[in-house]
Amino acid sequence: MSARLEARDLACTRGASTLFRGVCLEVGAGEWVAVRGPNGSGKTTLLRCVAGLTRPERGTVLWDGEAIEARRARYHAAILYAGHLAGVKDELDAEENLRGALRLRGVAVPDAAIRAALADVGLERHRRLPARRLSAGQRRRIGLARLLLDPAALWLLDEPLTALDDAGQRLFERLLERHLATGGLALVATHQDLASTPVRSLGMGP
Amino acid sequence: MSAAAARLEARESPGSFGAAFAWALARDVKLALRHPGETLLVIAFFVLVASLFPLAVGADPQLLARIGPGVIWVCALLAAFLSLPALFATDHADGSLEQMALAPHPMSGWVTGKIAAHWLASGLPLTVLAPLLGLQYGLEPEALPALVAALALGTPVLSLLGAACTALTLGARGGGMLLALLALPLFVPVLVFGAGAADAGAMGLSAAPHLSLLAAMLIVAALGVPAAVCAALRIALD
Questions:
Q1: Spelled out in words, what is the top-level CATH class assigned to the domain A4-203?
Q2: DSSP alpha helices (H): ranges in chain B?
């Protein structure tokens, strides 16, 4: 995999205030870049720009050297974005949520693998419970199971450690390491220090 | 980790309209079946409001047969409107909408699937129930097929137009009121020709011209609305 994410001179304004300007970043295969900065410094907006959800005021995001708007479907097949909102449906159980999320991304995974992934993230006994009866941390763990099964090359993660306990954080660190070892890329907005050191840290805000 | 092998096996299929449509339709129908309350509420509203008119205007059979088709259409329109605000709002609130927008499928695929599911949970039950209400209003049995055909063609148009308005008001403050102001005027042509078809049927005339116009509206809406919804959702997610 010779995947490469590049952002050139990104700028974004919200209303009258400039969130960031002149942001450049580069992530290569097997690398992860940390996005750091105080609350409100534009970390989430930067991730949304890179994902293609928010249109930046200026600048371009390139995936394998091509602008992401030019080949939207190909780019979106290659990324996994996990924002503040987990995208978990209250009415569906953990297994249905996970299967639905994977199907939506066009990833076909056998049921046994889904159950195994849920067991790996510690949701084995809760997999048939509607998500509304899961705690915030357990809902996050559904997201971890997604990281485990989705073959996306680029992870765009916004505060992935929120609501996770110590064991959950270590699990996430292991998943990230495995992802990088298999040639994956990651852009992670986080306040905490993770076990693996990022290739670069991108400081946001003043 | 035991799931690691499966991860390698998992293949990414290229995005397609059909896959996204089927995914959204199956998911929303499943959600509607999990929570049948919402659909039952729509049906109960439809039946209740339609039953209020005879109490208010009196039980003169001729008068009721005259106003019946129009009343049933207005009630169906309001009942279909009732379930519109939740069409995209719940997915927007829990982050599902972002995930759908980032899927490698054309956005119009799952948008159309969601609209189809909305019709199955609102328009279809109303269409099925309408003949019963028609009998309650003393419509001639010969008038009922036109009423049902008009609803079967008209309620999908209501779901489509309503979806566009819902997408436009997504995230706006006071979205519910705004939605009513936007959507109800757009529903007027459907109401005019829908009630017209039922009326023509009741008077023993051919309902075909009205039904043809409704079918034309449905085709135009089905072709044009999904693109508009996609544009509106992109703005809402920006």
A1: alpha beta
A2: 4-9, 17-34, 36-57, 61-82, 86-93, 96-101, 107-121, 123-136, 144-169, 175-202, 208-237
Q: Per-domain residue ranges for chain A?
A: 4-203
DSSP helix/strand/coil, A202: strand
- Residue B3 domain flag: no
Query: Would residue B59 count as lying in a domain?
Result: yes
- List the single residue in B1, B6, B103 with the smallest CB-CB distance to A76: B103
Shortest CA gap A20–chain B (Å): 16
Q: Which residues of chain A have a CB within 8 Å of the CB of B105?
A: 73, 104, 106
> What is the least distance, in Å, from the CA of A178 to any CA of chain B?
10
Is residue B116 domain-resident? yes
The structure tokens listed for A101 are: 């999320």
Q: Tell me the pLDDT of chain A (206 aa) as tens digits.
A: 468 999 999 999 887 888 899 999 999 999 999 999 998 888 999 999 999 999 999 999 999 999 998 888 899 999 999 998 888 999 999 999 999 999 999 888 999 999 999 999 999 899 899 999 999 999 999 999 999 999 999 999 999 999 899 999 999 999 999 999 999 999 999 988 888 888 888 888 76
Q: How many domains does chain B have?
A: 1
Q: Specify the pTM.
A: 0.92
